[in-house]
TrEMBL record, chains A, B:
UniProt key word tRNA-binding: no
Family: Belongs to the FAD-binding oxidoreductase/transferase type 4 family.
Keyword Oxidoreductase (UniProt): yes
One Pfam family, short name: FAD_binding_4
Keywords assigned: FAD, Flavoprotein, Oxidoreductase
An MF annotation (GO) of this entry: oxidoreductase activity
Name recorded for this polypeptide: Putative FAD-linked oxidoreductase
Listed GO biological process terms: respiratory electron transport chain
Lineage: Bacteria, Pseudomonadati, Pseudomonadota, Betaproteobacteria, Burkholderiales
InterPro entries per record: FAD-bd_oxidored_4_C, FAD-bd_PCMH, FAD-bd_PCMH-like_sf, FAD-bd_PCMH_sub1, FAD-bd_PCMH_sub2, FAD-linked_Oxase-like_C, FAD-oxidored/transferase_4, Oxid_FAD_bind_N
Residues of the FAD-binding PCMH-type domain: 38-219
EC assignment: 1.-.-.-
Cofactor: FAD
Length: 473, 473
C-alpha cells in the first residue's frame, strides 16, 4: 500500500494525495456522503489535474489491485461516491479538473472537464450568450462529471432531457487506464456502438469520465412562471397535455405539489407566501420559455389557462408578474424538502411512473399506505412533466420520526416499490442506484437486463476495480 | 442444416421458412441490398410472428451454430441487413411483427413492434392526434426496428434527434435467445446501465429488437417552409444560428443545397421549378413548426428573414404560400439524389462535421479534390442543422461515370475521409457501418473505442452469431 501511495504521489504530486497518515488531514468531505448516511474510510484521496494523470492513477491502482471510487462534488443521494469502510479504496476526486476547454457557438456546444461545477457552467454559457439547461438543487456544488456519471435529471427535463440527452461526447479513462477520446461535437455519428450513453449513468463502475462535450441552446428571450391550483391529479395530467399543445417546446417546467407538501412549507416557512394551497388538493408550477418576447409568453400562458379553466382542469391560477415573483414561486417548490426536514425524518422515494398512470398509482398507493399505517402523511411532489415523483412518507402526526424511520422504512419501501412495479415504473428515476438501492435491483429489474449489465461490467472491468459494489453487487 | 430447417418450421410454421429448396421461391427481396451492391445467399428466410418465436429461432440457430442476419425493410445503405454469399446464414425477417401494441396519449408514447413500417407509424400517430417525427426518404418501406437498429436520422433531427433520441424503451431478444423486456414509457429511469442505447445503432450485432416504446409529440398547429439563397456556406451557418434564436424549437428542418446539386435537378427534372439557384452558391430550406398558428409562424419567418437580410446572411428568399408550394420545395431537395443518378454513378459520402467547421471543411476539401482530379464535380447537400452533409463526388463533365467510380472511388474516399478526420467529423453520420464501411473503422475510429466495442460484442454475443462481420470484423 505504501508503495502505491508513493507511486500515486509521483503521478499527481505529493500535495494531491491525501491520507490518514497525517492526523491533521480531515478527509470527511470525501468520505462522508451528502445525506450523511455513511461515513467510509479511504486509503487515500487522489486529486489529478489532467486526464493523463487520471489514466496513470487508474493504471497504478489496477496494478496494485486497489479499487477506485470516482468522485465529483459528492452530492449524490444514493451513497455512490464515497469509499466503503475498509480503508483500502482510493477516492479519485476530479474537482481539480475544472477547465472549460472550448465553447463553440456556431455548433452550440461546449467542451468541459469533469470537475466543473454545474452552476459555473450555467453561468459560463450565459456569459457567452447561450443556455446550458441542466438545473438541479445541488448545482452550486455538484460537478458535470458526477451529473453525467449519474445521468442527473432536475427541473427542465420535460424540455431538454436528462444529462444523457445533453451530452454529445465523452473523454473516459477505462478500467485499464486507457484514454478513450470520444469528445465529439457531432449530433450524428453512426460509426459503432453507443459507448457514450453506456458510460453516462454507469455511476463510475465502467470508466472514469474526465471531460464531455455538452449541448448549448440559444438563451430564451423570456421565461414566465405560473402557479395553478388543480382539482385532482387527473386534472394535473390533463393540464400537462394542454400545456404541451399550447406551449410546444416552450414548456420547460411542470412540477406538481400536493396539499400536505405545501402545508409544510406554509407551516415551517411562514415568511413564504404559498398561494392557493389550502383549498385545493394539488398545485402545479409551470414554466414557459419563449424565443420571442415576454408579451408573447404571457399571451400564450393566458390562452392556455383560459382553455384549462373552461375544461375544468384548473381551479385558480396566478402568473408571476416579474422575475422576483417567479423566483418566489420556484423557491416554494424548492423548499418542500427543507420543510419536510423541519417536520422530521421521513422515508424518501424517487420514482417514475408513466404519466398516464400517475393518478391511479397515487390513489391506490395512498390508500394502501393509509390502511397499513393509519395516519401516515404523504409528501407528494415532483416533476410531473417527466412522470417523476418524490413520493415521501412522513410519520403520523405526533409520532416520533426516528422511531418511524427505523421501524417502517423497509416495509414502506417494499409497499411503494411493489406498487411502482405494478404500474411499470422505476424505483430510481433520477438519483441512481449507488449502494443504497443496489440490493433492491434484483427484486425490481428485469433479470435479463441484470444479466446483460453483469456481462458488460465483467467485459469492461474484469478486475472489478471501478466503484465495486455500486449499481451491481 | 436440414435438421435446423425442420426445427425452424416447427417454431414459426412451414410457410414462414423460405429456402432455395423450392426453385419457385424468389428470395432476392431478402438477399439483395437496397442499392444493389451485394447479392447474398441465405440458408433460409425465417419470418416469426411474435417475440417468443424470435427467441426460439435465435435459440435454435445458436444451438446449431448458424448465424443470423436480422432484417426489417431492407432499405439500409451500407449492406448491413442481407446475408453473405455463403448460403449458411439465416435471415430473420421481422416484417410480420407489425402490431401497434399501444398508444398512450397522456404519456406521449406508442409501443410498436419492430416490423411496423415507418410511414404507417407516422399515420397512426397522426390519426390519434400526435406527431411521430422520424422522417426519412425510405419511410414508405423501412421499418421501425431497422430505424432503431441503425439509429436512423432524416430531416427533422435538428429538432427531435435521431431514432435513438425518440426511443424510451426496447424489447430485445439476446444472442442467447432470452427476451429482455425493456419496454418502458418512462422518461427517467436510473436503475442501471443504458442497455437501450447500446442496442439502438448496433445494427443487429448485439441483439434483435422486437418492439419499442417511442416518443410522441403534439401535432404542430402549422408548418411553414422557406427557401433562402445565401452568399456562402459561412452565411448558411450564420443563418442557422439566427434561426435557432428566432424560431427556438420551432426550427424543425434546415437543409443546405449547393448550386451544382440544384443545377442537376433543374437539368434532369425541368418540370420542377427550382427557385433562386442559378445566381447563388448555396440555397437553404427551412421548416418552422408552430404550436400556435400559421399566421404566427409566418410572422416569425418574416422577422427571421428580415434580420438575415440586414446582416447580409441571406441574398433572396421565398416563403411557401401554401402546403402544395411547401411540398414542391421539399420535393426539390428530395430529388437531388435522383437527379444525381440521372447524371450517372457517383461516389457518395454521408459525413458529419461540427457545424462551425463545415465552411472550412468544404473550402479545403473542394480545393483538394479539384487539385487531385481536375474537373471533378461536387454534389454537396444535406442536413446542415445537424452538421450532416451528403458530400458526393461526380465524374468530370463528359467523363464515363462507371470508369470514374471504378478507378477513383477508393482514392476519393480516402481523401474525403482523411479530411473528415482532420475536422473531427464522422465518416458515417446516419447510414451506419454495415459491411460497406467495416474495414474503414480501424483507420478512423479511436482504437480504445474499437477495443471497447469488441469487448462488448464478445460479452453479449460470444458465439458471434448475430450479424457477424457487420460493424466489427
Amino acid at each position: 500500500m505504501n508503495e502505491l501511495i508513493t507511486t500515486l504521489r509521483s503521478i499527481v504530486g505529493h500535495a494531491q494525495v491525501l491520507t490518514h497518515d497525517d492526523p491533521a488531514t480531515d478527509l470527511s468531505a470525501w468520505e462522508q456522503d451528502w445525506r450523511k448516511r455513511l461515513r467510509g474510510r479511504a486509503l487515500a484521496v487522489v486529486r489529478p489535474g489532467h486526464t493523463a494523470e487520471v489514466a496513470a492513477v487508474v493504471k497504478a491502482c489496477a496494478a496494485a489491485g486497489v479499487s477506485i471510487v470516482p468522485q465529483g462534488g459528492n452530492t449524490g443521494l444514493v451513497v455512490g461516491s464515497v469509499p466503503d469502510d475498509s480503508g483500502t479504496q482510493v477516492v479519485l476526486s476530479l474537482t481539480r479538473m475544472n477547465a472549460v476547454r472550448a465553447i463553440d457557438g456556431d455548433n452550440l456546444t461546449m467542451t468541459v472537464e469533469a470537475g466543473c461545477v454545474l452552476q459555473v457552467l450555467q453561468e459560463t454559457a450565459e456569459k457567452a450568450g447561450y443556455l446550458f439547461p441542466l438545473s438541479l438543487a445541488a448545482e452550486g456544488s455538484c460537478t458535470i462529471g458526477g451529473n453525467l456519471a449519474t445521468n442527473a435529471g432536475g427541473t427542465q427535463v420535460v424540455r431538454y432531457g436528462n444529462a444523457r440527452e445533453l451530452c454529445l461526447g465523452l473523454e473516459v479513462v477505462t478500467a485499464q487506464g486507457e484514454v478513450w477520446n470520444g469528445l465529439s461535437g457531432l449530433r450524428k455519428d453512426n460509426t459503432g456502438y453507443d459507448l457514450r450513453d453506456l458510460f453516462v449513468g454507469s455511476e463510475g463502475t465502467l470508466g472514469v469520465i474526465t471531460a464531455a462535450t455538452m449541448k448549448l441552446y440559444p438563451l430564451p428571450a423570456a421565461q414566465l412562471t405560473a402557479w395553478a391550483a388543480v382539482p385532482s391529479l387527473e386534472a394535473a395530467v390533463q393540464l400537462l397535455g394542454l400545456a404541451h399543445r399550447h406551449l410546444g417546446a416552450g414548456l420547460t417546467g411542470f412540477e406538481v405539489m400536493g396539499r400536505f407538501a405545501l402545508s409544510l412549507v406554509a407551516k415551517h416557512f411562514p415568511q413564504q407566501r404559498v398561494p392557493l394551497w389550502a383549498d385545493h388538493p394539488y398545485c402545479v408550477l409551470l414554466e414557459n420559455s419563449d424565443s420571442e418576447s415576454e408579451d408573447h409568453a404571457r399571451g400564450q400562458f393566458e390562452r392556455l389557462l383560459e382553455t384549462a379553466f373552461e375544461n375544468g382542469v384548473v381551479s385558480d391560477a396566478v402568473v408571476a408578474e416579474n422575475l422576483s415573483q417567479a423566483h418566489a414561486l420556484w423557491h416554494i417548490r424548492e423548499s418542500i424538502p427543507l420543510a419536510q426536514a423541519e417536520e422530521g425524518l421521513n422515508i424518501k422515494h424517487d420514482i417514475s411512473i408513466p404519466v398516464s398512470k400517475i393518478p391511479a398509482f397515487c390513489a391506490e398507493t395512498d390508500a394502501l399506505l393509509q390502511r397499513e399505517i393509519p395516519g401516515v402523511r404523504l409528501v407528494n411532489f415532483g416533476h410531473l412533466g417527466d412522470g417523476n415523483l418524490h413520493y415521501n412518507v412522513q410519520a403520523p402526526e405526533g409520532g416520533d420520526p426516528a422511531t418511524f424511520l427505523r421501524e417502517q422504512e423497509e416495509r414502506v419501501n417494499h409497499l411503494v416499490f411493489d406498487q411502482v412495479a405494478r404500474f411499470e415504473g422505476s424505483i430510481s428515476a433520477e438519483h441512481g442506484v449507488g449502494s443504497l438501492k443496489v440490493d433492491k435491483l434484483p427484486d425490481y429489474k428485469d433479470p435479463v437486463a441484470l444479466a446483460l449489465m453483469r456481462s458488460i461490467k465483467q467485459a469492461l472491468d474484469p478486475q472489478n476495480i471501478l466503484n465495486p459494489g455500486r449499481v451491481l453487487r
